């Protein structure tokens, strides 16, 4: 069982995961626990339970469906991510990555995401009083 969980986590980080149709990242600060934040994501996106893990500097959760990958990471200290990656703004302790896989159903395209994605994330972030929110959308070339 543990082996299967690790295989699932490793699959998420593989470079040969099907080409990504869309990647959306949110960087922000929140006092909310990772567990509470993830419960809210599960309710909003119906992604099923997330798998949790941790290391020295942060804790994270991952969920993968046939169409999407959710990766939510929370640093124990502010600015940990900024020190590691200058593109992450100062003061942020959360990084949320949302990926629409290239193999996702045809309905899950940029138009679909533009219509529903940002509003869902804004609702989650607002409901949980997240601060200093920065959004970065990546449209991979393929």
UniProtKB/TrEMBL annotation:
Record lineage: Bacteria, Pseudomonadati, Spirochaetota, Spirochaetia, Leptospirales
UniProt organism field: Leptospira weilii serovar Topaz str. LT2116
Highest taxon listed in the record's lineage: Bacteria
Protein's recorded name: Uncharacterized protein
